Amino acid sequence: MHDIAALKTALEGLAIEDNPQIVRQKSRDFFWYSPVLKRQLEDVTADIVVSARSEADVIRVLKACYELDIPVTTRGAGTGNYGQAMPLSGGVVLSLAEMNQVLETGRGFVRAEAGAIMYAIDEAVRPTGQELRMHPSTYRTATIGGFIAGGSGGVGSINWGGLRDFGNIISLKVVTMEAEPRVLTLSGEDMHKVSHAYGTNGIITEVTVPLTSAYDWVDVLVGFDDFAGAARYADAIANQDGILTKEIAPIAAPLPHDYFLRHRKFLRSDQSVCALMVAPFAMDAFAAFTRRQKGAEVIYRSDLASAEESKGLPPVYELTWNHTTLRGLRVDPSITYLQVLYPFPDHVQKAVKLAEMFGDEVPGHLEFVRFDGKITCFGLPVVRYTTEERLNEIIRIHEDLGCPIFNPHRYTLEEGGMKQTDAVQLAFKGEADPKGLLNPGKMIAWENPDFDFSAEQTFLFPGLAR
Ligand code: FAD
């Protein structure tokens, strides 16, 4: 049992929420995308939620929790998918949503508090003609700190790669979980210590990230008779260096028609679609290029659509990445999804082969990205879920074909990632969180150094049984 009464006394004056219903709600993220995580994590809840308004508040919370041995799980907007922001051992959920100021905009960079929403950052920097290089499809709700600690890339990754790539984060201010919390500024090589570490080894309070030129991006849907046509077109336009795009996502029939309800008026149920964001100045080139592609039919362009046609439509980026799955879940709560990497240079061939192999059990959804300088694609295919055994079989078939799965049905860093210990993150946890109180249960290497990743076993965090 955590001594919450003593903690409340120590934190007097801070914004503390202890209403069990609100605490439970703020202890959840989008873990329910996965039927496996839904079963495992349904009852997870913190004891209290504390909202920090400044770095000094964060330091105060960490110092008090360290003294009382109370776990702390950081929360941005709680849009993560794998129970990342869920407090498996209870304790405190530390919300950074109120630390949301944009602090400085310069040529090529912005500095902001970690709780700033990405859409709001772009609004703030837009007068300078700039915007963030990349954002998740949760742009309008997710925080920049949550994206860096839990996300990987998204809209814009076709040009800039992912968050893991050097240069896509400039520097981070991080608070450690010690008797006397330290405030560190990390940059360059050190960034890997905390980026995509789920807040297990430090709390990011401030970020500096690069900016690029801003455009009034044109939303486009191009229709195809089959998924293979959409995938080949996506690859071809992604490789057109002169046509500036920000998003390229082929999605197999019948998903666009069945899930994109507001766009349905433009779609046939047998039509696969490539969803794109294209720079306004490139629209003539885009149209000329697309006209040459066999079977491509431009079915929607936001720059040519009438106000009546565009009324009520969500932006194209909210049809892509994990918004495709979200829209699907609203129509059919029994589906789930996978995250796949189709390695260059056989990415299209492999993606099409797998889509054809599984047919309507695993309809294809690809996201084209630049990966180590090459154009390739990730997949977030929908899975018409039957059993956990079948889901694991589908995963195995992908991996046997050389397509790694970043398993969205696991809550640990390693199982959702490269399935190996990240020695840099582990070592930093030893320094920055010696008692292991930050987001417990998410880093297997810390909880069980002997865990055998090759044995295909699932890690079960003992603290979850609480
Ligand atoms: P949270 O969910 O609150 O936190 C994410 C993780 O980071 C948690 O482990 C949390 O403890 C930790 N954390 C949060 N803030 C901090 C901090 N300041 N310091 C240390 N640790 C912290 N992800 C992508 O990468 N690309 C996408 O395109 C994408 N699309 C999505 C679409 C949908 C519909 C959904 C539901 C999810 C999507 N995601 C995507 C996952 C998620 O939205 C992103 O990772 C998002 O950026 C998380 O931001 P957040 O503020 O909600 O973070």
UniProtKB/TrEMBL annotation:
The keyword Flavoprotein applies. Keywords: FAD, Flavoprotein. GO terms for molecular function: D-lactate dehydrogenase (cytochrome) activity; D-lactate dehydrogenase (NAD+) activity; FAD binding. InterPro entries: FAD-bd_PCMH (IPR016166), FAD-bd_PCMH-like_sf (IPR036318), FAD-bd_PCMH_sub2 (IPR016169), FAD-linked_Oxase-like_C (IPR016164), Oxid_FAD_bind_N (IPR006094). It comes from the Bacteria. Gene3D superfamilies: 3.30.465.10. Residues 42-214 form the FAD-binding PCMH-type domain. This is FAD/FMN-containing dehydrogenase. The lineage of its organism: Bacteria, Pseudomonadati, Pseudomonadota, Alphaproteobacteria, Hyphomicrobiales.
